[in-house]
């Protein structure tokens, strides 16, 4: 029997699954996402200002709260992946995956020998100590966000042990010769995202995407994506702060924040 995974449970129970994003050390951010009804929170070790120790402390704080956790890392290097899993993350998202080999390396980093290269060292005894159960609870997502990744999406989805593919619209748009703001409006990029989603779901995997706003999250859900990140804690704070100031001044509502589509 696998150790508990709130992420796997959420993905099995509902569509879509909504996520918040954390880019800096914070206690309040993840808890506010939880109290607001979000299904998961992602910790960004690629673009965010977070280290292993920061993530470990925040994961520990969320241990008894009803929200799933994932960590985005920049490479499939085994040691950092193993550390965040030992600290209790339900899953990892590996950025800039462009080949089946990179996806396979990411999976191997979450599996103990002989299936992979993960070193045994659980930090959260509440998850249990059985290696088979510990690796079974882990979800592994390849982040496809370039034209090269798009070209190899069939091979990536064929990697054994991969849980899903998570799309990064901004980098995908840039790699296709467009601006990051074109990610959801240019038909070439929208078609590419639709193709990724179709290929992923046809392979029986979870399709995820970084939306960046609630409005774009609704669009992503309409396209069929299941695991959808809406906003980061900094975006939510900025949006809420601006809304309160607008209310106080009696001014027209501000335009929606379209940043954070990475």
UniProtKB/TrEMBL annotation:
One of its GO terms (molecular function) is 2-dehydro-3-deoxyglucarate aldolase activity. One of its GO terms (cellular component) is cytoplasm. It is an enzyme of class 4 (lyase). It comes from the Bacteria. Coiled coil: none annotated. SUPFAM superfamilies: Phosphoenolpyruvate/pyruvate domain. Keywords: Lyase, Metal-binding. Residues 31-231 form the HpcH/HpaI aldolase/citrate lyase domain. Its EC number is 4.1.2.20. Belongs to the HpcH/HpaI aldolase family. This is 5-keto-4-deoxy-D-glucarate aldolase. It comes from Mycolicibacterium vanbaalenii (Mycobacterium vanbaalenii). The lineage of its organism: Bacteria, Bacillati, Actinomycetota, Actinomycetes, Mycobacteriales.
């Amino acid at each position: 029997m696998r150790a508990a995974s709130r992420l796997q449970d959420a993905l099995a129970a509902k569509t879509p699954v909504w996520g918040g994003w954390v880019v800096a050390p914070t206690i309040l951010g993840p808890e506010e996402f939880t109290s607001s009804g979000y299904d998961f929170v992602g910790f960004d070790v690629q673009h965010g200002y977070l280290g292993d120790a920061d993530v470990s402390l925040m994961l520990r704080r969320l241990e008894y709260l009803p929200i799933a956790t994932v960590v985005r890392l920049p490479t499939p290097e085994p040691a950092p992946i193993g550390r965040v899993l030992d600290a209790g993350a339900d899953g990892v998202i590996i950025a800039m995956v462009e080949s089946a080999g990179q996806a396979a390396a990411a999976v191997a980093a979450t599996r103990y020998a002989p299936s992979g290269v993960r070193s045994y060292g659980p930090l959260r005894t509440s998850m249990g100590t059985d290696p088979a159960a510990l690796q079974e609870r882990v979800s592994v997502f390849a982040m496809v966000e370039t034209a090269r990744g798009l070209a190899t999406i069939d091979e990536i989805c064929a990697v054994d042990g991969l849980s899903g593919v998570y799309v990064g619209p901004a980098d995908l748009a840039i790699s296709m010769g467009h601006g990051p703001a074109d990610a959801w409006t240019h038909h070439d990029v929208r078609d590419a995202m639709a193709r990724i989603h179709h290929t992923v779901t046809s392979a029986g995997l979870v399709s995820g995407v970084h939306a960046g706003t609630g409005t774009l999250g609704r669009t992503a859900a309409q396209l069929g994506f299941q695991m959808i990140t809406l906003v980061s804690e900094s975006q939510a704070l900025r949006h809420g702060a601006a809304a309160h100031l607008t209310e106080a001044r009696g001014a027209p509502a501000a335009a929606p924040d379209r940043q954070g589509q990475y």
